[in-house]
Amino acid sequence: MARPRRFPNPALFVCDIQEKFRPAIFEYDKVISTAHKMIKACYTLRIPIFSTTQSASRLGSLCHELTSIETVHTFPIIDKTAFSMLVPQLRDTLTSRSSYPYQVAIVGIETHICVTQTALDLLSEGHRVYVIMDGVSSCHEGERAVALDRLRQEGAIVTTSESFLYECMGDASIPEFKAIAGLVKETKDNTRDAVQTLCKM
């Protein structure tokens, strides 16, 4: 018998992974690759996926690699001008789904701006935050490192995409395990490259 899930109320936040940022963000292709894997896995695990864009009229839509995934977004993409993802529309959606705290994984950009402010807002409202280290970046590599260190001190858990997904499952006997294990195998080369580049301590 499968043990109870470790995360009773998980969610995935996809923060501002827009086409316009492609030339500017450090190792952006690896962020996109990790986000793509996380979206597919969370859909399989029936974890809600919330995505935002930052000022889409100026900065464009999400990268095509993400928008091309079928049924990628559990809820509509929210466009915002605030740096935090936790704008009223998203906060209202979260509270309408559940009155209990969430366990939120965050992928996206920029680590020291939108990801940080999103994490801080979630923590202040009692949620648990998992910053996916192989799935976040900034224009400048140094800003990323400082932000991750600060987020650890603030109480966020900085971890990897694979670690989060296996913690979500908790038990190999769950029905979704085979599909997730297959996805992990399928993406192992991209995961290795992202971890080796973005998870250097």
Written description of the protein model:
The structure is a single chain. By secondary structure, the protein is α/β, with parallel strands linked by helices. The chain is 46% helix and 17% strand. The chain contains 9 helices and 6 strands, in the order βαβααβαβαβαβααα. It has helices at residues 28-44, 56-59, 64-67, 88-97, 111-124, 141-154, 161-169, 177-186, 188-198; strands at residues 10-15, 49-54, 78-80, 103-109, 128-137, 157-159. Helix 1 (28-44) links the parallel strand 1 and strand 2. Helix 5 (111-124) runs parallel beside helix 6. The longest helix is centred in the first third of the chain and has 17 residues, at 28-44. The N and C termini lie far apart (38 Å). The mean pLDDT is 93.
Instruction: Report, as a whole number of angstroms, the end-to-end distance.
Output: 38 Å
Query: Element order, helices and strands?
Result: EHEHHEHEHEHEHHH
Helix amount: 40-55%
pLDDT average, as an integer?
93
The largest sheet is: 6 strands, parallel
The radius of gyration is 16 Å
Low-confidence stretches: none
Q: Which structural class fits the helix and strand makeup? A: alpha/beta
